Amino acid sequence: MRRPSQMMKLLITSFFGVIVGFLMGITFPTLTLTKMNLPSSLFPSIDLAYIEDKYSDLSRKRLFSAWSSTKSPKLKSDIPDPPYSYNDTKIWVPTNPRGAERLPPDIVTPESDLYLRRLWGDPNEDLKIKQRYLVTFTVGYDQRKNIDAALKKFSDNFTIMLFHYDGRASEWEEFEWSKRAIHVSIRKQTKWWYAKRFLHPDIVAPYEYIFIWDEDLGVEHFDSEKYLAVVKKHGLEISQPGLEPYEGLTWEMTKKRDDTEVHKNAEERNGWCSDPNLPPCAAFVEIMAPVFSRKAWRCVWHMIQNDLIHGWGLDFAVRKCVQNAHEKIGVVDAQWIIHQGVPSLGNQGRPEEGKQPWEGVRERCRREWTMFQDRLDNAEKAYFEASAHNNVSSSRPHR
């Protein structure tokens, strides 16, 4: 048996060992994975949740920080700490765009653009030129030669955007301009379907004018810069080039005239115009080749219905987006185009009940025109009825 003195020595030694261990533990910093020189390939195999459960003093944040530091060549000291807490909710700016109220106004970027940028270098040096105008065509590959001829009439001041309804976007690489164009390829859709989804006013905000054109237009007598010079001279918010007369021309308003630079009204057949300042005698352009100012497009875009994809009826309604529309909507005669009447999009339809593909497409166009007009009439009626009710309520004396 051990003597009492030996037992006492053992107890004293153990006690001092515990004390020294405790003091060392609180003196040295906690061991973290950031101090360990381990290969980064090791970390994906580590179960972080298991480590956190087993060693509760190591937080998930520290472990993920350690993993990130091994993946990045940047030292942690190179990354500045934020000057505020991420959980700080003191910022609230009700005038910011909806959903961005928690952001400081100077970081909010509510609008975008379609400018193409590099993947390298200084972002401030990306753009040699910022195009002022946008031209879009809804195209099929079979009309490539006509589109090539058309785009040669548009200067470098234009961003080019092609909407491909046949899915053959990659085949346009044969044209040099195609490499700087924006291509959107979704099968069997119309230009108004594309416009509603890809030409939001906040996306095209940098452009002073937006051309939304069909693919079957002859442009031998058209120059984009000269056209816009006339548009600006006459203060047109919505316009189109004059149409060279052809057999299928429907409206007198859009027919090219030889005796004027611009015209804003026309005489139509008896009974077609209830008012000489209303469509189709004035404040009217067709939907095949419209040109919108930035301000007008911001309104027109909101009028386009998601499900009415052919746009029939829009030409009679765009006047609602322009004050004094009979003065601000017109046809430019000095720069004119030819409607070739190629039924390419009509052929994208499907034969049903013995009808040709184009027949079904045309029937839907007419149906959409009626539906759009009904919706617009009902919306205006509801608005004026509500306004009248509110006016009556506000005029009653309060008791």
Automatic annotation (TrEMBL):
InterPro entries: DUF707. It comes from the Eukaryota. This is Lysine ketoglutarate reductase trans-splicing protein.
